[in-house]
Amino acid sequence: MALSEQRILCGIPYVTGAASAMLLAADLELSFWGGVDPKTGEVIDRFHPLSGRFLRDTILAIPGGRGSCGGSVIMMELILNGLGPKALIFERREEFITLGVIVAEELFDKTAAVVTLNPKDFCEILGWDGKTIHIRGELVSDAPFKTPYAANGAAKRAVGLNDFDIQLLMPTVRC
Hints:
Layout: E1 8-10, E2 12-16, E3 18-25, E4 58-62, H1 70-80, E5 87-90, H2 95-108, E6 113-116, H3 119-126, E7 132-136, E8 139-141, E9 156-157, H4 163-169
Parallel strand pairs: 3-4, 4-5, 5-6
Antiparallel strand pairs: 1-8, 2-6, 2-9, 3-7, 7-8
Helix pairs in contact: 1-2
């Protein structure tokens, strides 16, 4: 019986980092505002395929978010409360949810990797649902990487916030 080869997909990292966790995947957008309970991390949208599942310590793969910029706040709360996913994989660029990750990292030093895959690769990882997958920078794999990841202990963003951006965001951030 032959062992299958490791699959490594390459995407665009919007917040780079490394994570290994069980993949929680769906081919339907998710509204974080009203669709995820920020106090428990449970998907509470009863019409979503992930309904009743918890985001904590997973790698979440969805095509993108659904709804308004309120999703940024919910994602930030999930990360700050230790209830969010270790990483997020999207099929397309997702500004609102990624903003919540960036604010949590910039202001509170807590983060999650964010990677966008092309539609073909995103479709492939939907078949990995429930399996442990691995993210390192822009790479997504179905098996552990053979070389160590040197990120100097901290995730690096593809989008940066300057001092002015931080001052604009501070009044809206509540602990």
